[in-house]
């Protein structure tokens, strides 16, 4: 039986301009030519190996997939990710719903990162008008247009607008496509539901993004590079807004997952780099790889030349460090990013490192190859 649901329309939604933030475009973006300062010897060696693998993948036309957690954006690494795309080193990017949000907020207002403890207690954490309105509308429009989650938001940032169809047009498409293309009808119905729920007017909505040069999603859209948003229902602040549509998120998120899986399908001889993503990256990767191995085996093939670099802050633990899977009684067994990737076959490398140091080291060596094992700034980690 249906259970009573919370009414989001009853929420007092505040303007984003009222929020105090902790991350600022003016002070917290990392210069792309900065030097890494805290890399251990193991991390420096992994940088070297990653450079070799990325260069080989590019030479052979294989994917270089970079999947990252939201703190990569909050740590000011957007400009560096954009340079990796501009210079042709990365072919696919993926992040979670929070990464999409932080990237959008920086592009829109040049600030992001609220005080969670303070704002939950005050009943205002995540309940912000512009973030909820614009991202949810972008996803609704993107679902209607056949786009993925990341592309939907990236297009809005890059184009600085959203174009919403007339309700009559949507109703006609719902009826006309019901037999021949029910998914198209459903997407039109979803967008109509979003718009009528809060009386969102049709037509062109101008949405200036004064800092869009910092947006990884916008750059990916501009360059035609896949940027995947891979959300989990209820995990992100956009779910607090009444314009939020689970149907639209499902459509765009699934498109991105299947496009991500197609990248994995060609990953033999490529490189997969997972940075600061404790759950999302390993979880989507194992399902994608299993499907891809299924397809390859059906053709008498197998993905064997699989190479993965995993970077996070926690120590690996004795079991993983020795190259074997620890017992389930060992707490390190439950580090998903170690357990999953080490079960995938091929070669998996792990290093403890701040994502700023690792990506700066990686880009510095891709841009200016130097003697393997040496630190770009000559300092020991």
Description:
The model is unreliable at 371-381 (pLDDT under 50). The longest helix has 20 residues, at 246-265. Helix 4 (78-86) packs parallel to helix 11 (216-223). The protein has a single domain (8-27, 44-160, 207-367), classed as 3-Layer(aba) Sandwich (Rossmann fold). The chain is 47% helix and 12% strand. By secondary structure, it is α/β, with parallel strands linked by helices. The protein contains 16 helices and ten strands. A six-stranded parallel sheet has the order 7-3-2-8-9-10, with helices on both faces. Strands 1-4 form a two-stranded antiparallel ribbon. Strands 5-6 form a two-stranded antiparallel sheet. The radius of gyration is 22 Å and the shape is globular. It has helices at residues 25-28, 41-59, 71-74, 78-86, 97-109, 116-121, 129-145, 149-159, 167-176, 182-197, 216-223, 246-265, 280-298, 318-321, 336-342, 355-367; strands spanning 21-24, 64-68, 92-95, 111-114, 161-164, 203-206, 227-229, 271-275, 307-312, 347-352. Helix 13 links the parallel strand 8 (271-275) and strand 9.
